[in-house]
Amino acid sequence: MGGILSDAEFQDILKRVREALDEIPKQFQRLIDNINSVLDWLPGFLMEKINQALKAVGDFIGKILTEIGKIITQPGVPWTLWNHGNTWTEQVGGKTSTWQDVFHIGSLKTDDEWKGGAADAYKNILPLQQKALGAVKSAADEIDDVLTKMAIAIGVAWLAIVAAIVSFVVELTAEAGAAATGAGAPPAAAAAGVSAAKVWGIIAAALAALEAFVAGSLLPSIKDLNQRITNNEGFPGGHWPTLTTDISDSSHKENKGQNAPWEMSKA
């Protein structure tokens, strides 16, 4: 899929994130319980440091659960954005480009077989219609570009989040186990603080990068696209270029029709 997460891949990421969100509070409580179970063995000055470390861990976990909770219900749909972009390119841009290649004088057999006022009017409208087709192709390309970039950005952000949060669960689980040994409680609490700070930094950076991309790159591109679509370039008065001459009547050369708009030039 060219680096874009498929539906199945993305759903698997979200599943792993949800499982991690459920597991983190459990392992944090396990860490606290194991430390409490060895309180009688620890001197008072260590308990103060442990409590500070646990408070820091709890604060970071609160931020993690809050921020991911905001986006997990509306995580984005990268594969749909990718597919829609492909549709615009293949079904609109590609077909429009094909027509643009043949909508010019010299590529149509009738250029050499018809003459007269109607023939001239038809030939004169071809460049305008070719320009309109070109405008459609350019707009379709820009739509594809915007949708593809957004799909990639969403996927990159979630890949960073799932990697960070799953590794945090692994580390927190190990730290909670180490805390039950008594002597391992102080270093386990300190290590949990480091792990929590690390994962929060990764998640905050991923979300900030996504926000910066949307604000700094995607929104300007959408604005430019909207301007292109609404400026009527290639579409006089907002409409497909049409003939201003009535060419509904026709006549063959041998009919000798006076002022015939269509006249066969072949003998």
Automatic annotation (TrEMBL):
Keywords: Membrane, Transmembrane, Transmembrane helix. The keyword Transmembrane applies. Residues 233-267 are annotated as: Disordered. The chain crosses the membrane at residues 150-170, 199-219. This is Uncharacterized protein. It comes from Actinophytocola algeriensis.
